[in-house]
Amino acid sequence: xxGTTTGPITTFGVGRDISVVxxxxxxxxxxxxxxxxxNWRARYERVTHEPINSPTRERFLPNGHDWSMSLERRGPxxxxxxxxxxxxxxxxxxPNGTQDGGSxxxxxxxxNGSTTIYQGTNVSMSMPDRLTxxxxxxxxxxxxxxxxxxxxx
Length: 153
Prior knowledge:
Layout: E1 18-23, E2 35-49, E3 57-72, H1 77-90, E4 102-109, E5 115-132, E6 140-147, E7 149-152
Antiparallel strand pairs: 1-4, 2-3, 3-6, 4-5, 5-6, 5-7
């Protein structure tokens, strides 16, 4: 038998197998070092048809994607970015009166060694938890957003 192996590199993926790049609506790349957690959830509009003389039928229509991530704070760049987005909103909108238009890219290292890339478009985002701190843990930030579409590249 030779020294080569066949089959998957591992049997399942873990959080280390994912990396994320986010470009804000104003074109600034977020500092995502120290990622702790990422969630990506598809939205569906539930449409129900209830005929009088037959069983109810439902359809689930795609309605965008919600995403969120937590990361360790590594400097003031993220707070500065979201402060600029907020200031731009109060000054008449950013860019062109809206807060959407950013992008999110998710890179997944698959168990067979390949990489799958997903792109989220028309991204809007917020930073509801700018600083969460306690004595024995790293300072945590939470960024969340919405993407109109999220599909493989």
